[in-house]
Structure formats: C-alpha cells, structure tokens
Amino acid sequence: METPGHLHTARPGTHLAYLPLLPTTNKYLQRKWDKAAYDLHRTAVKSAKPTIDTTPPKMYAHLALNLKKLQIDAERTIKIQRENELNLEKINHIMRTTGEVDNMRYYDRKSLGKERRQQELLHITKENQMIQFRLSHCRSHYGVRNLHEDWLKTFKGQKNQPRQKVQRL
C-alpha cells in the first residue's frame, strides 16, 4: 500500500526508502504516523456516502391505490354486464320466435295542425272563388273600341315619321 511522501525506487533488488514531505527528526516514526493517517483517510473514503440522493421517492398508499379509477372501472364493468344481459335476452327471444323484424308501424300518422290547415285552405278557396266571381261579372271601365282607335292613330303617326340611324360609340 502506498503512503504519502515520496517512494524512492532504486534498481531491482534494492530496498525502498521512505522520504517524508516535511523535514523530520525520526523518519520511522513519521512513516508510521503518515501510514496511520493515510489508512484513516482510506477508511473514511470507503465509508463515504454520496451527497446526491438517488433513491426513489416514498410511495404513499393513497397515491398508489387510485380509488376513483377503481370505482369507474367497476361501474363500467356493471354497465357492460347489463348490456350483455339485455343482448342475451334479445337473442333468446329471436331464437324462441320466428326471428322476424318487429319494426312495423301500426299507427296512423297524426298531425297536430292538420285541422287548422284544412280550415285555412277552405277559407282561402272560398276567398279565391269570390274574387273570381267578382272579376268575371264586372264591366270594364275602358272601351275596347276607343283603345283600338287610339292605337291606330299612334301607329299611323309612327309610319309617317322617318327613322334615324343610331350611331354606336
């Protein structure tokens, strides 16, 4: 084991001499004390603990066991079991019967405003008949003969006027 200070190595076959770092009166006692201090240092280094805590954090029971998740899983399982039972009942019913589809609609379609719409339609029809009667039995305020004569005058006047060419830009 190496000790502090300088080890002077000579040629093979010669002994190693201890050279202390500081001047001393007794080299043998100084070597013994240095070796004891070094051994004490080595045991302290071997038993030293790390300054950084690398251990995992503590596990708390209320965090490790998620009760809400367990409750939700249990409720979902119960719901799935209930749906499975309903499906099983439906399948059993189909197996016991002919298996026909029973989605026939045996009811009359009802409208909440059907009577009101029919009354409005009847009222509108009566009004239209009254208007048609009045229009067919009224006399015109304009004389057809007078309108025809005015049109002929206008037409003759247009024939007599020369036409002008319109220039396009």
Report on this structure:
This protein is mainly alpha-helical. It is 56% helix and 4% strand. It has helices spanning 27-46, 61-64, 67-96, 114-137, 144-160, and strands at 6-8, 17-19. It has a two-stranded antiparallel ribbon. It is elongated.
List keywords for this structure.
mainly alpha, elongated, 2 strands, two-stranded antiparallel ribbon, 5 helices
**What is the approximate shape?**
elongated
Number of strands: 2
Rg (C-alpha, Å): 60 Å
What low-confidence regions span 5 or more consecutive residues with pLDDT below 50?
none
Topology of helices and strands:
Layout: E1 6-8, E2 17-19, H1 27-46, H2 61-64, H3 67-96, H4 114-137, H5 144-160
Antiparallel strand pairs: 1-2
Summarize the structure.
The protein is mainly alpha-helical and 169 residues long. It contains five helices and two strands. It has helices at 27-46, 61-64, 67-96, 114-137, 144-160; strands spanning 6-8, 17-19.
